[in-house]
Amino acid sequence: MDASLWIAKTGLTAQQTRMQVISNNLANVNTTGFKKDRAVFEDLLYQNLRSPGLMEDSSGDYLPTGLQAGNGSRIASTQRINSAGSLLQSQNPLDMAINGNGFFAVATGGGTAYTRAGNFMRNDKGQIVTASGNVLLGQSSVTSASASSAGIVIPSKATSVAIGSDGTVSYNLADSTAPSQADQIAMVNFVNPTGLASAGGGLYYETMSSGEAQVGVAGKEGFGSISQYYTEQSNVNVAEELVSLIAAQRAYEITAKSVSASDQMLQKLGQL
Q1: What is each CA distance from 138 to 36, 80, 146, 210, 244, in whole angstroms?
Q2: Is 237 helix (H, G, I), strand (E, B) or coil?
Q3: Which of 85, 175, 219, 255 shows the smallest number of beta carbons within 10 Å?
Q4: Could you tell me the end-to-end alpha-carbon distance of the chain, in angstroms, rounded to an integer?
Q5: pTM of the complete model beyond 0.70
Q6: Are residues 142 and 213 in the same domain?
Q7: Which portions of the chain are predicted below pLDDT 50?
Q8: How many domains does the chain have?
Q9: Closest by Cα among 228, 140, 225, 133 to 181
Q10: pLDDT confidence of residue 137
Q11: Is residue 87 part of a domain?
Protein backbone atom coordinates (compact mmCIF):
# COMPACT_ATOMS: atom_id res chain seq x y z
CA MET A 1 0.00 0.00 0.00
CA ASP A 2 1.17 3.52 -0.76
CA ALA A 3 3.08 5.09 2.15
CA SER A 4 1.10 8.33 1.92
CA LEU A 5 -2.06 6.48 3.01
CA TRP A 6 -0.38 5.20 6.17
CA ILE A 7 1.12 8.63 6.86
CA ALA A 8 -2.28 10.26 6.52
CA LYS A 9 -3.72 7.60 8.83
CA THR A 10 -1.29 8.61 11.59
CA GLY A 11 -2.41 12.22 11.18
CA LEU A 12 -6.08 11.25 11.43
CA THR A 13 -5.43 9.22 14.57
CA ALA A 14 -3.46 12.06 16.16
CA GLN A 15 -6.13 14.66 15.39
CA GLN A 16 -8.85 12.35 16.68
CA THR A 17 -6.97 12.02 19.99
CA ARG A 18 -6.54 15.80 20.10
CA MET A 19 -10.28 16.26 19.67
CA GLN A 20 -10.86 13.78 22.50
CA VAL A 21 -8.61 15.84 24.80
CA ILE A 22 -10.38 19.08 23.87
CA SER A 23 -13.81 17.49 24.31
CA ASN A 24 -12.82 16.30 27.78
CA ASN A 25 -11.72 19.82 28.67
CA LEU A 26 -15.05 21.26 27.55
CA ALA A 27 -17.01 18.53 29.35
CA ASN A 28 -15.30 19.52 32.62
CA VAL A 29 -15.69 23.28 32.31
CA ASN A 30 -17.85 23.29 35.46
CA THR A 31 -15.85 20.68 37.40
CA THR A 32 -14.40 22.12 40.61
CA GLY A 33 -10.60 22.16 40.61
CA PHE A 34 -10.31 20.61 37.12
CA LYS A 35 -7.07 21.22 35.23
CA LYS A 36 -7.18 21.17 31.44
CA ASP A 37 -4.94 19.00 29.27
CA ARG A 38 -3.31 19.64 25.95
CA ALA A 39 -2.15 17.15 23.36
CA VAL A 40 1.57 17.23 22.55
CA PHE A 41 2.47 16.13 19.01
CA GLU A 42 5.71 14.70 17.67
CA ASP A 43 6.84 13.52 14.26
CA LEU A 44 7.58 9.86 13.60
CA LEU A 45 10.82 8.20 12.48
CA TYR A 46 12.19 9.49 9.17
CA GLN A 47 13.19 7.39 6.19
CA ASN A 48 16.75 8.53 5.53
CA LEU A 49 17.24 8.32 1.75
CA ARG A 50 20.27 10.61 1.75
CA SER A 51 21.86 12.00 4.89
CA PRO A 52 22.58 15.72 5.17
CA GLY A 53 26.28 16.60 5.04
CA LEU A 54 27.37 13.86 2.64
CA MET A 55 30.15 14.66 0.22
CA GLU A 56 29.22 14.89 -3.45
CA ASP A 57 31.57 12.64 -5.43
CA SER A 58 31.90 14.83 -8.54
CA SER A 59 32.99 18.07 -6.85
CA GLY A 60 34.12 17.06 -3.39
CA ASP A 61 31.71 19.54 -1.81
CA TYR A 62 29.25 18.68 0.94
CA LEU A 63 25.60 18.50 -0.02
CA PRO A 64 23.67 21.37 1.61
CA THR A 65 20.62 19.24 2.35
CA GLY A 66 19.67 15.61 2.66
CA LEU A 67 16.71 13.56 1.46
CA GLN A 68 14.58 12.43 4.38
CA ALA A 69 10.97 11.32 4.05
CA GLY A 70 8.72 11.71 7.08
CA ASN A 71 6.34 8.98 8.22
CA GLY A 72 3.62 11.00 9.91
CA SER A 73 2.88 12.15 13.44
CA ARG A 74 1.51 10.94 16.75
CA ILE A 75 0.43 12.21 20.15
CA ALA A 76 3.53 11.96 22.34
CA SER A 77 1.76 12.86 25.58
CA THR A 78 -1.06 14.79 27.18
CA GLN A 79 0.23 17.64 29.33
CA ARG A 80 -1.82 18.91 32.27
CA ILE A 81 -1.90 22.69 32.57
CA ASN A 82 -1.78 23.49 36.28
CA SER A 83 -2.64 27.19 36.09
CA ALA A 84 -5.07 28.42 38.72
CA GLY A 85 -8.79 28.63 38.05
CA SER A 86 -11.00 31.50 39.15
CA LEU A 87 -12.44 31.47 42.68
CA LEU A 88 -16.17 31.19 43.30
CA GLN A 89 -17.62 32.33 46.61
CA SER A 90 -20.05 30.04 48.43
CA GLN A 91 -21.98 29.76 51.68
CA ASN A 92 -20.50 26.42 52.74
CA PRO A 93 -17.96 26.87 55.58
CA LEU A 94 -16.12 23.73 54.42
CA ASP A 95 -15.53 25.04 50.90
CA MET A 96 -11.85 25.84 50.45
CA ALA A 97 -9.64 27.13 47.65
CA ILE A 98 -5.84 27.08 47.43
CA ASN A 99 -4.31 30.41 46.45
CA GLY A 100 -1.07 29.28 44.83
CA ASN A 101 0.82 25.99 44.71
CA GLY A 102 -0.21 22.81 46.44
CA PHE A 103 -2.82 20.10 46.80
CA PHE A 104 -5.15 18.79 49.47
CA ALA A 105 -4.31 15.25 50.62
CA VAL A 106 -7.16 12.75 51.01
CA ALA A 107 -7.27 9.10 52.10
CA THR A 108 -8.63 6.60 49.55
CA GLY A 109 -8.78 2.83 49.23
CA GLY A 110 -5.76 3.06 46.93
CA GLY A 111 -3.67 5.13 49.35
CA THR A 112 -3.16 8.87 49.64
CA ALA A 113 -4.52 10.89 46.73
CA TYR A 114 -4.25 14.60 46.00
CA THR A 115 -6.80 17.10 44.76
CA ARG A 116 -7.42 20.78 44.10
CA ALA A 117 -11.19 20.36 44.46
CA GLY A 118 -12.05 22.03 47.76
CA ASN A 119 -15.81 21.41 47.86
CA PHE A 120 -15.74 19.45 51.12
CA MET A 121 -18.51 18.37 53.49
CA ARG A 122 -18.99 16.38 56.70
CA ASN A 123 -19.93 12.72 56.86
CA ASP A 124 -21.86 10.88 59.59
CA LYS A 125 -18.69 10.68 61.74
CA GLY A 126 -18.03 14.39 61.57
CA GLN A 127 -15.03 13.92 59.26
CA ILE A 128 -14.33 16.44 56.52
CA VAL A 129 -14.63 14.49 53.26
CA THR A 130 -14.87 14.95 49.51
CA ALA A 131 -18.09 14.38 47.58
CA SER A 132 -16.92 10.77 47.07
CA GLY A 133 -16.35 10.25 50.80
CA ASN A 134 -12.54 10.47 50.79
CA VAL A 135 -11.27 11.81 54.12
CA LEU A 136 -9.35 15.11 54.13
CA LEU A 137 -6.02 14.66 55.89
CA GLY A 138 -4.48 16.97 58.45
CA GLN A 139 -0.90 17.39 59.55
CA SER A 140 -1.40 14.70 62.23
CA SER A 141 -2.56 12.01 59.78
CA VAL A 142 -1.02 12.77 56.37
CA THR A 143 2.11 10.68 56.98
CA SER A 144 0.15 7.58 58.03
CA ALA A 145 -2.90 7.87 55.81
CA SER A 146 -5.19 4.96 55.07
CA ALA A 147 -8.79 4.57 53.98
CA SER A 148 -9.78 4.38 57.67
CA SER A 149 -7.85 7.52 58.74
CA ALA A 150 -9.68 9.68 61.25
CA GLY A 151 -8.73 12.79 59.32
CA ILE A 152 -10.12 16.11 60.58
CA VAL A 153 -13.22 15.68 62.75
CA ILE A 154 -15.79 18.37 63.54
CA PRO A 155 -18.09 17.45 66.46
CA SER A 156 -21.81 17.32 65.76
CA LYS A 157 -22.39 19.95 68.49
CA ALA A 158 -20.15 22.50 66.79
CA THR A 159 -22.03 25.73 66.08
CA SER A 160 -19.50 27.19 63.63
CA VAL A 161 -16.33 26.24 61.79
CA ALA A 162 -13.42 28.53 60.94
CA ILE A 163 -10.53 27.70 58.62
CA GLY A 164 -7.51 29.97 58.69
CA SER A 165 -5.33 30.88 55.73
CA ASP A 166 -2.69 28.52 57.17
CA GLY A 167 -5.17 25.63 57.18
CA THR A 168 -5.93 25.65 60.90
CA VAL A 169 -9.43 24.21 61.44
CA SER A 170 -11.24 25.36 64.58
CA TYR A 171 -14.83 25.20 65.79
CA ASN A 172 -17.05 26.67 68.48
CA LEU A 173 -19.32 24.74 70.83
CA ALA A 174 -22.52 26.10 72.32
CA ASP A 175 -21.28 25.63 75.89
CA SER A 176 -17.82 27.15 75.31
CA THR A 177 -16.67 30.67 74.49
CA ALA A 178 -13.19 29.74 73.32
CA PRO A 179 -12.75 28.00 69.94
CA SER A 180 -11.31 24.48 69.83
CA GLN A 181 -8.73 23.42 67.26
CA ALA A 182 -9.47 20.23 65.33
CA ASP A 183 -6.28 20.00 63.27
CA GLN A 184 -4.33 21.79 60.56
CA ILE A 185 -4.95 20.90 56.93
CA ALA A 186 -1.90 19.31 55.28
CA MET A 187 -0.64 20.95 52.11
CA VAL A 188 1.29 18.85 49.61
CA ASN A 189 3.27 19.77 46.53
CA PHE A 190 5.51 18.02 43.99
CA VAL A 191 8.58 18.85 41.96
CA ASN A 192 6.65 17.98 38.79
CA PRO A 193 2.86 18.21 39.40
CA THR A 194 2.24 17.46 35.72
CA GLY A 195 3.65 13.98 36.36
CA LEU A 196 0.82 13.06 38.73
CA ALA A 197 -1.49 10.29 37.49
CA SER A 198 -5.12 11.34 36.96
CA ALA A 199 -7.56 8.91 38.56
CA GLY A 200 -10.88 10.67 37.96
CA GLY A 201 -13.02 12.27 40.61
CA GLY A 202 -10.58 15.18 40.75
CA LEU A 203 -7.94 12.91 42.30
CA TYR A 204 -4.28 12.46 41.42
CA TYR A 205 -1.74 9.89 42.58
CA GLU A 206 1.99 10.19 43.05
CA THR A 207 4.24 8.66 40.40
CA MET A 208 7.97 8.41 39.76
CA SER A 209 7.56 11.31 37.30
CA SER A 210 5.94 13.61 39.84
CA GLY A 211 8.55 13.01 42.52
CA GLU A 212 7.82 12.40 46.18
CA ALA A 213 5.13 14.33 48.01
CA GLN A 214 6.44 17.36 49.89
CA VAL A 215 4.27 18.12 52.93
CA GLY A 216 4.08 21.65 54.27
CA VAL A 217 1.93 24.36 55.82
CA ALA A 218 -0.42 26.55 53.79
CA GLY A 219 0.98 30.02 53.16
CA LYS A 220 4.58 29.07 53.99
CA GLU A 221 7.65 27.91 52.06
CA GLY A 222 6.08 28.19 48.62
CA PHE A 223 2.72 26.63 49.51
CA GLY A 224 -0.46 28.52 48.67
CA SER A 225 -2.75 29.88 51.36
CA ILE A 226 -6.28 28.61 51.94
CA SER A 227 -9.42 30.70 51.42
CA GLN A 228 -12.53 29.56 53.28
CA TYR A 229 -15.95 29.98 51.62
CA TYR A 230 -14.41 29.73 48.15
CA THR A 231 -13.89 26.95 45.60
CA GLU A 232 -11.48 26.91 42.68
CA GLN A 233 -13.20 26.58 39.35
CA SER A 234 -11.93 24.79 36.25
CA ASN A 235 -9.12 26.56 34.40
CA VAL A 236 -10.74 25.72 31.04
CA ASN A 237 -11.24 28.73 28.76
CA VAL A 238 -14.30 27.87 26.67
CA ALA A 239 -13.50 30.28 23.81
CA GLU A 240 -9.93 29.00 23.57
CA GLU A 241 -11.06 25.37 23.56
CA LEU A 242 -13.68 26.02 20.87
CA VAL A 243 -11.05 27.62 18.64
CA SER A 244 -8.77 24.62 19.22
CA LEU A 245 -11.66 22.29 18.42
CA ILE A 246 -12.32 24.03 15.11
CA ALA A 247 -8.60 23.93 14.26
CA ALA A 248 -8.46 20.19 15.05
CA GLN A 249 -11.56 19.58 12.93
CA ARG A 250 -10.07 21.44 9.97
CA ALA A 251 -6.78 19.57 10.31
CA TYR A 252 -8.70 16.28 10.36
CA GLU A 253 -10.64 17.27 7.21
CA ILE A 254 -7.47 18.29 5.35
CA THR A 255 -5.72 15.04 6.30
CA ALA A 256 -8.78 13.07 5.17
CA LYS A 257 -8.56 14.85 1.80
CA SER A 258 -4.96 13.69 1.46
CA VAL A 259 -6.22 10.11 1.90
CA SER A 260 -8.72 10.70 -0.89
CA ALA A 261 -6.05 12.27 -3.12
CA SER A 262 -3.66 9.34 -2.57
CA ASP A 263 -6.45 6.90 -3.37
CA GLN A 264 -7.25 8.72 -6.63
CA MET A 265 -3.58 8.68 -7.61
CA LEU A 266 -3.41 4.93 -7.00
CA GLN A 267 -6.52 4.43 -9.12
CA LYS A 268 -4.90 6.37 -11.98
CA LEU A 269 -1.77 4.25 -11.70
CA GLY A 270 -3.89 1.11 -11.79
CA GLN A 271 -5.42 2.20 -15.07
CA LEU A 272 -2.07 2.58 -16.81
Answers
A1: 27, 26, 12, 22, 40
A2: coil
A3: 175
A4: 17
A5: yes
A6: yes
A7: none
A8: 2
A9: 140
A10: 94
A11: no
